[in-house]
């Protein structure tokens, strides 16, 4: 539905038919015109569903179910579940009025799940990139996003245990709308503020990463390679991917992919993996890395999260910022756990 709107406004930049042949899969995907406008739609939709009193009922239902099964609050449970199919900003939009009352642990769990999963808007894109490498890759990507949620909940609760009262389905009604159209309008306006903040933070953080890499480039090279944040993290992640089941002779290659995924994003990491020389990673290693990199835990996403959630609940912006880097670590650990499970099961 979002694509229908973006293609109407932006044409092929927003997902409409291309007036030329796409030489490289995914090259026509423009984040600002294809993925981020979903924030506007979800913001308007959630506002409308709150006006119709539908979302509060859903949250109450989740509250009863999640408290009995996983000891999670209702708002937390709904936000966590939504992360399977929508992004790290769209899922909190469904529970925006509850965010100010969530405990620190609940907020961190929501952030971690956002970092450990990917959005439905990019699943097809990633599947098109990896389709020639891994059979039925779409199913693997969807599975990875689903099973990373309980892993993210587990890691987040270990890092920041729950000590407060769980957020239930009770809600002091947010700003009342006078009609359905008024609710849609207010939700859209709030979505615009979110979108501007997200784009601004994303540009700044990616630019700062590039600046740091330029400065590191003045240092002596290592094995004829320029020192970058990705390279440093690649060395650091080599033992981690080995623990997931990657053979040691492939560990640096896989670790470098994790470094690229964490410093830049998983999109570039998947492209790099698709361009590896034949035999650089075994089929089992390729599958493990597909799962391990299937999450938004990177510095650019941190900018999106701070810009988005900080706008939704400005009174907790400092808390969100303080939890940001920890959510990247927790999200990465969660996807690595998912990769490790594949490493155990895949023979």
Order of helices and strands: HHHHHHHHHHHHHHHH
Could you name the ranges where pLDDT drops below 50 across 5 or more consecutive residues? none
- Oligomeric organization of the protein chains: single chain
Overall radius of gyration: 20 Å
Number of domains: 1
- N/C terminus separation: 40 Å
Helix content: 55-70%
Query: Helix count, per DSSP?
Result: 16
Task: Estimate the mean pLDDT confidence.
Answer: 85
Structural class: mainly alpha
* Residue fraction in strands: under 5%
Overall body shape: globular
Query: Biggest sheet, open or closed, and with what strands and sense?
Result: none
Give the strand tally.
0
Please describe the topology of this protein:
Layout: H1 2-10, H2 31-34, H3 38-51, H4 54-69, H5 74-82, H6 90-94, H7 104-116, H8 120-130, H9 137-159, H10 180-216, H11 229-244, H12 248-263, H13 266-274, H14 283-292, H15 299-312, H16 317-345
Helix pairs in contact: 3-10, 4-5, 7-9, 7-16, 8-9, 9-14, 9-16, 10-15, 11-12, 11-16, 12-13, 14-16, 15-16
């Amino acid at each position: 539905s979002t694509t229908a709107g973006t293609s109407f406004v932006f044409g092929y930049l927003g997902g409409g038919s291309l007036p030329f042949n796409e030489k490289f899969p995914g090259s026509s995907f423009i984040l600002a015109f294809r993925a981020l406008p979903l924030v506007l739609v979800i913001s308007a939709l959630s506002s409308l569903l709150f006006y119709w009193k539908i979302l509060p009922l859903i949250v109450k239902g989740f509250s009863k179910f999640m408290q009995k099964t996983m000891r999670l609050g209702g708002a937390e449970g709904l936000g966590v579940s939504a992360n399977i199919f929508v992004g790290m900003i769209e899922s909190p939009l469904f529970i925006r009025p509850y965010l100010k009352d969530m405990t620190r642990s609940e907020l961190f769990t929501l952030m971690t799940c956002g970092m450990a999963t990917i959005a439905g808007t990019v699943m097809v894109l990633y599947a098109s990139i990896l389709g020639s490498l891994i059979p039925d890759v779409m199913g693997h990507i969807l599975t990875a996003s689903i099973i990373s949620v309980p892993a993210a909940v587990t890691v987040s609760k270990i890092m920041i245990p729950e000590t407060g009262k769980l957020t239930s389905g009770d809600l002091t009604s947010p700003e009342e709308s006078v009609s359905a159209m008024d609710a849609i309008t207010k939700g859209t306006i709030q979505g615009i503020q979110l979108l501007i903040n997200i784009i601004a933070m994303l540009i700044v953080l990616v630019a700062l990463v590039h600046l740091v890499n330029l400065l590191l480039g003045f240092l002596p090279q290592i094995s004829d390679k320029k020192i970058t944040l990705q390279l440093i993290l690649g060395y650091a992640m080599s033992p981690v991917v080995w623990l997931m089941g990657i053979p040691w002779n492939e560990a640096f290659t896989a670790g470098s992919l994790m470094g690229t995924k964490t410093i830049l994003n998983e999109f570039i990491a998947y492209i790099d993996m698709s361009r590896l020389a034949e035999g650089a990673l075994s089929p089992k290693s390729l599958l493990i890395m597909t799962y391990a990199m299937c999450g938004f835990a990177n510095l650019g996403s941190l900018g999106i999260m701070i810009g988005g959630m900080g706008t939704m609940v400005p009174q907790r912006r400092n808390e969100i910022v303080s939890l940001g880097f920890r959510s990247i670590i927790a999200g990465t650990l969660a996807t690595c756990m998912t990769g490790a499970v594949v490493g155990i099961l895949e023979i």
